[in-house]
Amino acid sequence: MKEFTYVKAPDMDSALTALRTPGTQLVAGGTELLNWLKEGIEAPDHLVDITGLPLTGIGVGPSGQLRIGALARMSDLAAHPEAARERPVLAESLLLAASPQLRNMATIGGNLQQRTRCPYFRADTALPCNKRASGSGCAALQADDTAQLAIFGWTRECAATHPSDLAVALAALDATVLVSGADGERRVPAVAFHLTPEEAEPQHHTALGPDELITAVEVPGRPSARLSHYLKVRERASYEFAVVSAAVTLELTADDTIGSARIALGGVAHRPWRLTAAEEALRGTALADNDALRAAVAISFADARPLPGNGYKVQLAQRAAVRALRDAARRGGPGANGGSR
Ligand SMILES: Cc1cc2nc3c(=O)[nH]c(=O)nc-3n(C[C@H](O)[C@H](O)[C@H](O)COP(=O)(O)OP(=O)(O)OC[C@H]3O[C@@H](n4cnc5c(N)ncnc54)[C@H](O)[C@@H]3O)c2cc1C
């Protein structure tokens, strides 16, 4: 491993100034970054520890929005009543991720900045990977090893998926990522924070600039977040990344018809994939009409481009979305959704 300097940033200005020096990496919980150093994915000259910055708070703002500091631990957010009770999709996405030990160390900002789990990206011997070395090729596509790859938004350069469970829940909640840099603060919709290879070179994983850091995530206060659910399909029951996942929020009318629904999928692209066409089609659909739910969800798959080995994800993702809608609705009881049901 290459030698690097280590400094703990005493305040935000110092962290932002340090980021202007090329070869600098931030470290928060360290649960991702230290693996990258060992695997040769990153070889920084300077590590800047940001755990001393005042970004750990979780609280509700004047318009009911939940503000989550970028350095809040995954376990702290999962246990917070504003996640566990008011926005169950948030708590579930966190509790189904990693392990208790990791969640006690790992931060919200670090979770969003984690990188793909494509084995060719993570390989400790040098394999062609455009995400690691631009222009080197894609070993996964060359080997036709496509079972885990994307069905939306991929190119011949890269078809990796993004592994964050939290990001999928945030996309369904219409959350915003707050970012600070030399030019001040800017707001990025959570659904647009991760970049697909259609949007940027595969080496650009997120919308974060090289001299920026995430300060917080804001989640709007909406009654629909109470009827919400995160469903994660994985190859074993715990401590595993999603093959496919679905995050939903729901508003029901008194006769159990869908007033509005928001659906984001994980495991299908290099960003959470919102099913906006399906969301439109679901409005006015009776929750008990399973065929109608499936037909509405299927509309969003007109653009799906499965690879030879991952056609199964089309069916799996559609079923996960429908099941998540029904499971979210089961949370209801009179008044659970702002009185509309
Ligand atoms: C074995 C294992 C299993 C896992 N399983 C899952 C899973 O099932 N689901 C899931 O979602 N995740 C999973 N993870 C990923 C885990 O959630 C991340 O490792 C963790 O959230 C990273 O947070 P961290 O604070 O440790 O980040 P670090 O390792 O400290 O940093 C990771 C990256 O984020 C950057 N960074 C950190 N904070 C900021 C900030 N505020 N602004 C800008 N950049 C920042 C760092 O510079 C670095 O580039 C797993 C990880 C491991 C090791």
Short description:
The protein is built from 14 helices and 12 strands.
Throw out a few tags for this protein.
single chain; 341 residues; alpha+beta; Uridine Diphospho-n-acetylenolpyruvylglucosamine Reductase, domain 2; Enolase-like, domain 1; 4-stranded antiparallel sheet; 30% helix; 19% strand; globular; binds flavin-adenine dinucleotide
Characterise this structure:
The chain is α+β, with helices and mostly antiparallel strands. Among the domains are: 1-54, Uridine Diphospho-n-acetylenolpyruvylglucosamine Reductase, domain 2, CATH 3.30.43.10; 224-330, CO dehydrogenase flavoprotein, C-terminal domain (Enolase-like, domain 1). 30% of the residues lie in helices and 19% in strands. The strands form three sheets. Strands 4-5-8-6-7 form a five-stranded antiparallel β-sheet. A four-stranded antiparallel β-sheet has the order 9-10-11-12. A three-stranded parallel β-sheet has the order 1-3-2, with helices on one face. The radius of gyration is 20 Å and the shape is globular. The structure holds flavin-adenine dinucleotide. Flavin-adenine dinucleotide binds next to strand 2, helix 6, helix 7, helix 10 and strand 8.
